[in-house]
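Protein 1 of 2
SEQ + STRUCT:
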Amino acid sequence: MTQDITPWLNEIKALQEKIVKLQTELNVAQDSASKWRQLYNTEAQQRRTETQLAQETIQTLKAQAQKLQGFPSVEESIDESATTIEQQIENLQTLAEFKAQIIKVVQERDRAFAQVQKLTEALEQEQVNHTNTRTSLTNALADAVDILAKAKANKQQKSEITPDIQSKTEANIQAQNQIPLEESFSPNAAKLPPN
């Protein structure tokens, strides 16, 4: 009889080891998902900060470019900018000074436009990088969630199998316990030698 129980006990032990292994895999998958989620949030915050800084820089450079072109910025009134321009023109006494000042202003304007263009391109590239990062992190997070779901399904499947094995094992043990009781009630029954 004990030989009949041994395979069942071995199978129960193997299933318990599998459950422990699956629980470990589930814990690892949950830790991995948590790490990916944290990385995604960190990367997203970094991208938002960089985008905000780039937009502020672009706004500053646009304001400088408007000043160099002679257009009043939003903060300045039209009268103040006209007065400033008139004062600068009155300080110029010769045509050569006037030409030099115009060349200087045009060069500064061109540099500002080039810098705005570079920052705009950098912002666009950063937005593309952010989108790519978000996509890859979202895919990794989805993979981690799939692994978690599979591990959970395997755990539930194993836990459904385990009660069936336990009930069969309990039935075998009860059947073995009943045999000695029946033998003790029948005095004429032949005695089996002990194992």
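Protein 2 of 2
SEQ + STRUCT:
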Amino acid sequence: MSVKYGILTILYNGINHGYDLKVGVDSLIGLKGKINPGQIYTTLDRLTRDGMVTSAGTDDKERKRYAIEVKGMESLEKWLLDPVPYHSVKEDFFFKWSCARKIHFKEEKQMLDQQKALIIKETMELSRLKTELLVNGDEDRYLLVTGTLLHLEADLNWITRVENRHQ
């Protein structure tokens, strides 16, 4: 989960101040927890330094507001299209997909296709390893790989459900 891309997602939809960004990122994270407000402001400083976000003045309560720059939009869209490796936390892809849905990302299908392709590739590699482990009598590792394959199968099923939601 990336605070940077959570902030860029919220700013993609309009100018916001720090507290609204914190609430927005918390909603993207869902059940996983809450972001420390200090992390929001530290990340905003880095995003500003890197030219992805700019200050958009203050609101009527003197809270500093932020806007996304073209460089920030491009970075967010590029990140959305990078598949999430399975060894990474599964919720990373769900977070990324939530960000894509929040901004009505026009490349959502490509994003899902790329993730599915990565899962299929990892499934094939693990299936070969599983056979090798079975032949060599390594039952413990065989069972661990089998469990991972079941998780990959569930992820593929979930992506298929997402893809079929409009059919």
